[in-house]
Amino acid sequence: ELNKKYAEIKANEQRWEEEGIEDADYVFVAYGVPGRSTLGAIRELRAEGHKVGLIRPITAWPFPEKAFEHINVKGIITVEANATGQLVDDAALFTKKVLRADIPVYALPFVYGVPPIREIKAKFAQILAGEIKEVY
After folding, report:
1. pTM over 0.85
2. Fewer CB within 10 A of the end CB, N or C, for the chain?
3. How many CB atoms are located within 10 Å of the residue 86 CB?
């Protein structure tokens, strides 16, 4: 009975916000406070001509797997306010499971507070230049 309840929650309670994912080459995934600066970064990057989007999970569980179903990307990038990159594991799992196994997933962990827009943009440039390697 409990498994049935969890399956129902997983199917019906996934919540997220998204922006610009319909034509994005790269989709950023950011949970909580880093999602605000990541939103600012993707808006600036789009204004500069980059095809980027954002998936901002509202629920950590159930993880918004459905948000990944309709994207066709060159890469997924998590932006996190921690040292180890914890969201990257969930994002990679669903990217590889729902999309394709060959899509690279990158982690941008920021240890000291909320990542500034300029740093997110700088790290994105490093990803494009091949200076930051994929985690998965």
Report:
1. yes
2. N
3. 15
